[in-house]
Predict the structure.
Amino acid sequence: MKRQLPPLGALRAFEAAARLGRMSAAALELSVTPGAISRQVQQLERSLNVPLFEGSKNKPLLTPAAQTLLSALSPALDQIEAAVKAVSDANSGTVDVACFSTFTVKWLIPRLFDFNARYPDIEIRLQTTQRADDPDHERVDLVIAVEKPTSNLPNVLPLFAEQLGPVLAPSLAASLALHTPLDLAGKTLLQSKGRVDAWSMWATAMGCTTPQGNGATFDHYYFTLEAAVGGLGIAVAPWHLVADDVRAGRLVAPFGFCASGLHYVAKRRQQRNLRLDLFCHWLQAQAAQFAL
């Protein structure tokens, strides 16, 4: 019996727009114009003879019919995507990875040349996320997250324990007398909005009081670390984000690093994927080199 389905392109356009909440976001995901998304959705509405969106263009709302369609359509497209990846050539294709922007810039990207040299036909597509959750939610193959350790869970791969420590430029360190953590009081202490508890976590791990100082607060951790490299103050940072700078002499760590209680993990899609297997094996091997 012939399947009676609307055009697949119209279904994809509707699913993206409904899931993301905006035509413009769907257009960006599918690499088309917002007008093209709108026309595809209108085509689907005519085919089904039911409205799918209501309200203003700036804040469209899903109709009950659209909610019913989306609840079935998103899992179906996910299954199609997973099946295509599963049967495609394991030695070529893409692996989509999501993680925090600073981790991407300071740790992952500087090491990807090794993976590219080993598997030149596998493309690692990176995207940043503000909430490292799960790969199905992020619509990627792998999410790298930092969290408190939990019991062994399926499809969660341990990478390394986070180690925190104050870091600063050698030129600034030469002008300060930093012999004990108490010497940090009153100094220019840099902070990040994305990790406002970093100094207190380090102090708790060290068994000392949280140092108080007057320093800038930056929107992103990457800006904070670059400010430290530039001699603008003292940052407290995870070892894996500053290891290359410390080894190159751009930063010094007067008190070393101590465990924060958090761990980095990689959360992979449940569906088996040989390309993803290769990347996960490589990622864990790279992480194993980072034990202090």
In short: Strands lie at 53-54, 61-62, 93-99, 122-128, 142-147, 156-167, 191-192, 217-218, 235-238, 258-268. The chain has a mean pLDDT of 86. The chain has three domains: 8-87, 93-160+262-288, 161-258. The chain has twelve helices and ten strands.
